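User: I want to check something. If I give you two sequences, will you return the structure for each one separately, not as a complex?

Assistant: Yes, each is folded on its own. Here is the first sequence with its structure:
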Amino acid sequence: GDVAILSEDAARVRDAVAELPEKGKAALVLFYYQGLSYDEVALALEIPVGTVKSRIHNAVARLAKTLGATSPASREGA
């Protein structure tokens, strides 16, 4: 049961990541999946570090919306 749920969740995340705009997806994948630092992502994409952070932030926010995630504060009614 748990393995099936995890597999389903992983598929949902993969699908949601695939739907991200290309610029945000590239930064997100390099940072989270490839384990690069912000500086390394900036070098790889030839963009400023601030832009990397912005793209990752926007991509994560879009994923949260797509996947129906809520922050811990909103779950606690804050």
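And separately, the second sequence with its own structure:
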Amino acid sequence: MIRSYKAIQYTRNGLIYFVLTVFAFFMIFPFLYMLTTSFKEPKDTFRYPPRLLPRETLTTEMPGFDEPLPLYYGEVNGEQRELALVESNIRIGVFVDPANPGVELQLPLDNAEPKGGFTNTEQVLANGEEVPVYLVTANGQTQELALVNQTALGRFVDPNDSSVEILQNVRLSQPVEELTARPENYTDVIALQNMDRSLSNTILVTVLVVLGTLTTSVLGGYAFARLNFPGRNNLFVFYLGTIMIPFVVLVTPMYQLMVTIGWVDKVASLVIPWIFSAYGTFLMRQFFITIPKEIEEAALIDGANRLQILMRIFLPASTPALATLTTFTFLYAWNSFFWPLVVINTGNVDNHVLTLSLNVLRGRASDSPNLILAGAAIAILPPMIIYILGQRFFVESATSSGVKG
């Protein structure tokens, strides 16, 4: 009975992990594809069907050719070989003998000319259709053959034996490839869009917003949690109610305020308006409420002032709340797009942040998805790392705050 129960438990847990793994794969796959594509060559990004890992077509040097030739797989006498593409657009005609239409011959059209000329080409019935007759020269002999189809093939030569060559469709041929990576995409996108300046601006703005938000939220949260002053609760409810105001309602008055102050097109407009957070103040207040008052009273008796109590007692005890607020603020400040788009001019690249640079890069490198995704990786990876490092604090913060009013 016990073994049967354990088997059921193992089966159920296995199914749960399997379902979670499948969902996790679908969630993380776009990020993996973005990261691997950022290391691809431009032509590899347009390959169909698309492939996850970056690959590079191998080339070889051959006498008589100034540039390296790409290698493709080709069949010679039933054996797969690596052949060099020496000519990629040879016009080939598919001919049949009108007297024996069951046998098809593939011959270059350069060695054939229409019988009767191009304006009055002789026609013949082959395979139930009227097709033109060509005079084809092959092996020193001229024959009258009917042209039933035509295509374009490539000429492939064995690099080790130039006497071995075949004709086959280049588009349907499989190239000889190896796994590779092109980290130069990151340097190219930085040089193309001045991404290094945008990255430094984004780091500066994010750090200042995070530090400013932590400072105002900690001071405001402590005041609302521990200081008694007239109208404290009403002021807190009013301040908390600002969270319900949609951002689109605030855009116009905020922009007019920036114009009045003279901060349009300046980095200060990306920092100062966002260092005051009602959510951050609420989060810190709720956490500070959970700290026993007896600890604070004992510190006051020992001669500590309010600032010392905040710095030496409250802050060390509120690490989960601070980490949670830091992570959320970092993600918001790093990924902010609409407000920088409104307040920073497109032509002022010196004050661009990453989101604005990516918006411009989308148009400038529209034919190079590998560069666009390299820029996206530069913008996405830092907040992903911060989120992964800070997520362990979320549950601890949620379970230890917000439970008292």
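Because they were folded independently, the notes below concern the second chain alone. Residues 401-405 have pLDDT under 50 and may be disordered. The longest strand covers residues 79-97.
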